[in-house]
Design brief:
Number of helices: 5
CATH superfamily: Jelly Rolls
Strand content: 15-25%
CATH architecture: Sandwich
Number of domains: 1
Number of strands: 10
Radius of gyration: 18 Å
Helix content: 10-25%
Shape: globular
CATH topology: Jelly Rolls
Largest sheet: 6 strands, antiparallel
Order of helices and strands: EHHHHHEEEEEEEEE
CATH class: Mainly Beta
């Protein structure tokens, strides 16, 4: 396998991101993996998606075995997933929703808004936790705003433990923008590795294969905005 190219240096319209010299005013410790002095931590109750996945599978008239064969996993794993006993990795979740012909936003969407303005308090952000890769460090997503299935945009804070990484590159329709709030991130897009530090930002078209990892020693927190909704 060819080794991914690593680029650093000044930012251009289509080049890599320049390392930022000034961090945002993020004085409080982040909520995932660290304590906070003000008590404003996201709701640690994990979002349950099993019943919605099962419903989508039944709509497609797929047996557990049929879905498992297409995903490339065991039938027992799909069964446990539908009963919220295991958590999928991000790439597996992308594969599953593609087979079921739904958007990930369908799994995590909240009831329709009752007001034209949605406010999510700091202590009420739900967390999407993915299966720790190879029983090692994992990834969690703090949902800033839960996208509706018909929505045009979504925003999350990706919290990546030291050494944590996606389990393979993914691609899909859309565009993505990110801003590194804390820590370090290595973003790989179309085979090119972009080292990112606090204050750096990025943009790319989602149809390019992309993945990321945290090469640092502290949890990385990245504000990540996607359109259309992906997670």
């Amino acid at each position: 396998m060819a080794r991914a190219q690593v680029r650093t240096g000044h930012v251009s319209s289509n080049g890599p991101v320049r390392r930022g010299k000034h961090a945002l005013g993020v004085g409080k410790k982040g909520p995932v993996g660290r304590s906070r002095d003000d008590g404003n931590t996201p709701a640690d109750a994990e979002i349950k998606i099993g019943s919605r996945l099962k419903h989508a599978r039944l709509v497609q008239k797929l047996r557990l075995r049929e879905l498992a064969d297409q995903v490339g996993c065991s039938e027992s794993f799909i069964s446990k997933l539908e009963n919220d006993k295991v958590r999928p990795s991000l790439s597996m979740l992308h594969k599953i929703v593609g087979i079921l012909d739904i958007n990930i936003a369908v799994l995590f969407s909240d009831p329709p808004m009752q007001s034209p303005v949605l406010i999510v308090r700091a202590d009420n952000r739900p967390i999407i936790r993915t299966d720790p890769l190879a029983r090692g460090p994992g990834i969690a997503l703090e949902r800033l705003v839960a996208a509706a299935p018909s929505g045009l945009i979504e925003a999350n804070i990706h919290c990546v433990d030291p050494g944590g990484h996606t389990d393979g590159a993914i691609d899909h329709v859309g565009e993505e923008i990110g801003f590194v709030l804390e820590g370090k991130l290595e973003l790989t897009v179309d085979g090119v590795v972009y080292p990112l530090d606090i204050g750096d930002c990025f943009f790319f078209h989602s149809d390019l294969k992309h993945s990321y990892r945290n090469p640092g020693k502290v949890t990385a927190r990245v504000l990540w905005v996607c359109t259309p909704p992906t997670f």
